[in-house]
Amino acid sequence: MPITSKYSDEQVEQxxxxxxxxxxxxxxxxxxxxxxxxxxxxxxxxxxxxxSQRKAIADKFAQALVSSLxxxxx
Length: 74
Hints:
By secondary structure, the protein is mainly alpha-helical. The protein contains three helices and no strands. Pfam families: DUF1414. Belongs to the UPF0352 family.
């Protein structure tokens, strides 16, 4: 069952397109793009989430990432 987001698809797609354009502008490889995405996730957790909740949220984020890959494979 898909998760309902409080953010509109349009808002998410617009931001994603802008980020993708920046990565393309810098000719970022897939490895560099993933490293940057990981660093962004780490910074968001460290700057906006209580230390006691960081690991749990990071685990949920990782599970959601894996689930999104599995959904695309079928």
